[in-house]
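HUMAN: Please help interpret these tokens:
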Amino acid sequence: MSSLPPTPEHEAAPATPVRSPYSEPRHHEHDARAYSPFLPLLLLVLAGVAWPAFQCYQLINEKQALATVHTNQNKPFEDSGKLRNSLDGIARDTALLASKGNPGAKLIVDELARRGVTINPSAPPPAADKK
């Protein structure tokens, strides 16, 4: 071992300058690695493809839902047509009875006429259902 005298602590290590937080910021030299535009462009392209694909999927679902609603409305529409035809037949028969002198039928036809409902007794009956 050497016989050097002990040194004080402040002389043992070289002093490092203390930076104030208000001093000028360090100017880092440009990193050696350059950032590639691949990832941002990839994300942009993926978003550009994913959004129209999502919209297409949603529109297809809505089209199917509308087709289902339309199909579900066909039966009530057909039923209302059948009811309308049967009511027209009853009204036509009532008008024929009224023209033959039936007082109850005459009262019904007059009341319907007063409310704005006209009955054409000479109209042909609707075609029979094709089912």
